[in-house]
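Ticket reopened. Same input as before:
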Amino acid sequence: MAQTPPRVIVIGAGFAGLSAVKRLGRSGADLDIVVLDRHNYNTFQPLLYQVATAGLDAGDVGHHIRGIIRPYRQAELLVETVARVHPDQRLVELDTGATLPYDALVITAGARTNYFGVSGAQEHGLPLYTLPDAIRVRNHVLACFEAAEADPSLVDQGALTFVVVGGGPTGVEMAGAMSELFRNVMRRDFRRIDPENARIVLVEMTDTLLGAFRPRSQQHAHEQLAARNVELRLGARVTNIERTRVTLESGEVIPTRTVIWAAGVQGNDLTDDTFERIRGGRIVVNPDLSVPGHPEVFVAGDLAAATRRDGTLLPQVARPAIAEGRHAARQVLRRLGGQPTVPFRYHDPGNMATIGRRAAVADLPLHITLTGGIAWLAWLGLHLIELMGGMHRRTEVLVRWAWDYLRWEWGPLLILTPAPDPDLATSEQEQEPGAP
Amino acid sequence: MAQTPPRVIVIGAGFAGLSAVKRLGRSGADLDIVVLDRHNYNTFQPLLYQVATAGLDAGDVGHHIRGIIRPYRQAELLVETVARVHPDQRLVELDTGATLPYDALVITAGARTNYFGVSGAQEHGLPLYTLPDAIRVRNHVLACFEAAEADPSLVDQGALTFVVVGGGPTGVEMAGAMSELFRNVMRRDFRRIDPENARIVLVEMTDTLLGAFRPRSQQHAHEQLAARNVELRLGARVTNIERTRVTLESGEVIPTRTVIWAAGVQGNDLTDDTFERIRGGRIVVNPDLSVPGHPEVFVAGDLAAATRRDGTLLPQVARPAIAEGRHAARQVLRRLGGQPTVPFRYHDPGNMATIGRRAAVADLPLHITLTGGIAWLAWLGLHLIELMGGMHRRTEVLVRWAWDYLRWEWGPLLILTPAPDPDLATSEQEQEPGAP
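Engineering reply: fixed in the latest deploy. New output:
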């Protein structure tokens, strides 16, 4: 009788999950790898803000998971929603009620938007964490301009005021890209309103943008956003969001129809009462990324409270997620091969954010800080080389986009809301952005 | 006091509407051109079936209307829904209640899906006339495969049976493209099901496919679809559609979750009790395309009952629509210039349909009939030259697609349903596909 190969389940097919699957698949080990994701696509999140600002189309940043795992015959994808994990029985329970046993588990279930309990934020804020989020932001922003063109009196009611909450990379990138979209691309297209007069207000709780960056990068981001007419509200806190306005703690009321919520994320609650969590819902992990008490369960990506050697938490961005996923896969292989696991060591290549065309900041190792056009090229190069891997189509998309972007050739300015499919039980709608 | 230029309203920005706007804009005449459309994009309908079968992304066949009319400073777009036309008062009424007066009107409001009263067709049939329609078909078809992979017992319940109703160009193109998608692209991507075993059933009421084509083309379409394992039901009528099955007049019951409804269209009912209509809801027009009794109102495109010189109706496809729109615009200019109008003369360049890769049929003038690869190239060339005009991006898209298509490099296989925007009153959902 042939022996059944050990089953490794990977929950989530984001950067961490796919990185784990590739490492497992490439090992050639006799495994039964099951990938579980709610969607049949992987999202290239670093460029989501470009989808939201009509620089890229959805198909450019969404990638078909089956195509990515095609080379690994041991791996299969099931498009299913995970209800919870039962580590004591080594079972993953789906929301259909079915259970899947595993020998090793890699949880990369990611995060979802954190509204921090701000009144009205969940109802009226537009998050920017998933691909459907980004398409919704694009549709909404473009629809605001169409509404104002049809009835210019709406401008005084805030139809052309766009508030971004959160001064981290997502908020900065979104504010910068909106400014360029309005002032360089859309300005020629309306007769009754002037998109150059649209207001962009960036609200940040702390006293600086890009808190995780070096002061020189923060300063550059300030200057570049100011040069793009973005109004900065630093040290400002949003206390209430309504359909037609935002209220700040200072008492300032901003009439607006658009609040882009880029204030932060929290780990998905897939295993809520099962594993220990820290602030932000990240799961506590051992140095080897396994879960305390369950050496066959690993966590990687936004959901893992993985740290640097000095004990500080790694940021919830693509590059650490990829490294963590790969590490978790290696430890699974070591365990299955009877070897001891080793601790995760992250070699930090730095921090980067794009403010606009030829304007970016890059905090690199050895205290090298780049700003402006050279940082933009570094950003492009790093994404090309490190994140794209051997994926021909992705590389082509990024090169084409960069070329168009530099020439102000913009992409898909369509307001397109496909009707949901009422008939098929399995067709899904976004209920909880970011859940696997 | 400066004289107000005459206002020309164009309802609808499809092939006919944009063709009229371009002709009016290029004339250099001092006009106030107002374009009304429910959407901010124009749809390249001949390639909708490629969006539905994941060969192209939505942004490839949707084009931003403001970008297209940008060269014409006299023209403006209002993204609004027209409620009705009041020809006696020369007013267009919007669904907001506002009215717009006009000196001349070009109605190109298009058509919508005609369900011919078949029981269950409107509830469960998936039409393929608008861009949201095409995205919904794609999401649905791909979701069927995902559901069957997760639970292979669904295959016996029809999860992988795809019924296409209507053997005209849309039905033939859709059946052929699905077959290639399943058998050439998706076959490598599943572990538990075999996409090559998916059934495609094409149901046509008459005894032949492509009724408007020459017998040799019809024969080629039969052969090519049969070679692609498409099951043909000719002379067959659908009597009932339920969520999980289709019933034919013969008594045959086909278990299926997918009925693509390509059986025909009817004119939009924008002006229902105002103008005289023929079967299919097309508005009766004079030889110059004006409406009897209203010489300042013209109708063009799918909504117009325009005829050839022999009195037969022109097909509701792109090329006649473009010619009619241009003609209507010329007559508007002649009338405003005090000249008599002239009759519309259509120079028919022929009929074309694509069955699959390197397989097409083309009925050309002078009794030339092409089939196979040469017809496919003719199809490609004609679309490139005649429909794309000077639009750089469209041309690039088509060339890129044709190149990928020939290499079986497929595009966006994503199941992506953006959540509708609950907040903005102007954000729209499809209520009546095809309405302007």
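The first strand of chain B starts at residue 7 and ends at 11. Chain B touches chain A through 59 residues (CB under 8 Å). Please confirm and we'll close it.
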